[in-house]
Amino acid sequence: MSRFSAPQKTLLVATPLIVLLLIYMFPALTHSLGRSRGVAIALAIYWGAVCFGFGLTIIGPRNLKRLYTRPKTANTLNLALAILPVVLVFFAAFLPITATLTPRILLLATLFAIINGSAEELFWRGAFIRHFPQDARYAVAYPLVLFTTWHIALALIKGAQYQGGALTLIGGAAIMGLLWGILAWRTKSIYLSTLSHIGVNMMAFPAVMLVNG
């Protein structure tokens, strides 16, 4: 790995270790502390320490403005990559449950969507785009595999249920991660991918909350 810079090496080596830790931590905490408390603590660690903590450290605060640069011109493909996932999840997950939604679920889902979408795009797309701006293998493909794999941790949460089961959860992460990765790569920004990610989460999270009580 001599051709990589120190931050690149750190990102490439640390990220799979983080994924392994998450796959252990989520089921371990939910088994020992109960599902609600365990998930809350695990997500706080994931969002706070991994995505925001490690993500901001490896990116560097001075580079954030560039990562969140809004594309100057509208591009049909970029807009499609951003909007299509939200529309698909709206029809697949949100629309069928609209009659059973409550204001509390909508409020919590929106809050979690903003936190999760912002946190994950900062780390999974932002950090890799920042350090591998000219190499799609490491900016898109490498984090896509690991982003998809980390969702195994969610599938292993004690008592957790998902529409379509664990394979749908993991497969959906792979598809969305690919679209967001391509979008971030094309724009060299996580502005649109973050908005898209938040939108998808807002459509998907209410169903997850309903199914899991």
TrEMBL record:
The chain crosses the membrane at residues 40-59, 79-99, 105-124, 136-157, 163-183, 190-211. Keywords: Hydrolase, Membrane, Metalloprotease, Protease, Transmembrane, Transmembrane helix. Residues 105-203 form the CAAX prenyl protease 2/Lysostaphin resistance protein A-like domain. InterPro entries: Rce1/LyrA-like_dom (IPR003675). Signal peptide: none annotated. One of its GO terms (biological process) is proteolysis. This is CPBP family intramembrane metalloprotease. One of its GO terms (molecular function) is endopeptidase activity. Pfam families: Rce1-like. It comes from Profundibacter amoris. The keyword Hydrolase applies.
